[in-house]
Amino acid sequence: MPNACWPSRPFPPEKDARWEKHHDRLERRRIARVDVSPEEAGLVGCWQLVAVKRERIPLDKSKPASCEIGYYATSIAGDQMDDRALSEVIRDHWSAIENGVHHRRDVSFGEDQCRVRNRVAAEMLAVLRNLAIAIHELERQRGHTEAKTLRSWIKSMNFGKAHGPLSR
Q1: How many domains does the chain divide into?
Q2: Which tens digits make up the pLDDT trace of 95-146?
Q3: Looking at the structure, do residues 75 and 104 belong to the same domain, yes or no?
Q4: Which of 1, 5, 59, 133 has the fewest other C-beta atoms within 10 Å?
């Protein structure tokens, strides 16, 4: 983040942030944001730079507490949303990714069980998994498959069937 744009004390006081209980841990999020022009940010369409400080305390005392800061650039203007709404947008974005693509890649393809250690090979497998998910979604939207789930579609797929959708 450009130092010229970022305030020296970005996060609101701790007393202004509430703790929430999620996934066997206590979490507190504090958001700091600054309005910028696309030229200042160096990003076309960027109107805000955002930092979210996430503090987590596991309920299981054997696990360590953590604190991390995530940085975001957004096309949402500063006066379009308050801190709480913007924080919700960011949280929903990551929730959709985790519950959408990541969950589907793990459940349908067993990605977490994959033990490929070569980085390039692992990236290629991820690309192929994403491609299969995208093809399934296109087939489903076009009404070209009766499979209800990605997993059942994968089990019914063979080269002849897979080649057909790509040529339509």
Answers
A1: 2
A2: 776 667 777 787 778 888 888 889 999 899 989 888 888 888 888 888 877 7
A3: no
A4: 59
Quote the tokens at residue 127: 């690309």
Q: 119: number of CA atoms within 13 Å, CB side? A: 0
Query: Between 119-142 and 159-167, two packed helices, what is the crossing angle to 10 degrees?
Result: 70
Contact of 76 with 48, CB cutoff 8 Å: yes
Domain carrying residue 160? 91-168
The DSSP string of 127-150 is HHHHHHHHHHHHHHHHT----SSH
Question: Alpha helices of the chain — where are they, by DSSP H?
Answer: 38-41, 83-97, 103-109, 119-142, 150-156, 159-167
Query: What is the model's pTM?
Result: 0.57
State yes or no: pLDDT of 11 exceeds 90: no
Distance of CA 26 to the CA centre of its chain: 20
Let me know whether 125 and 168 are in one domain: yes
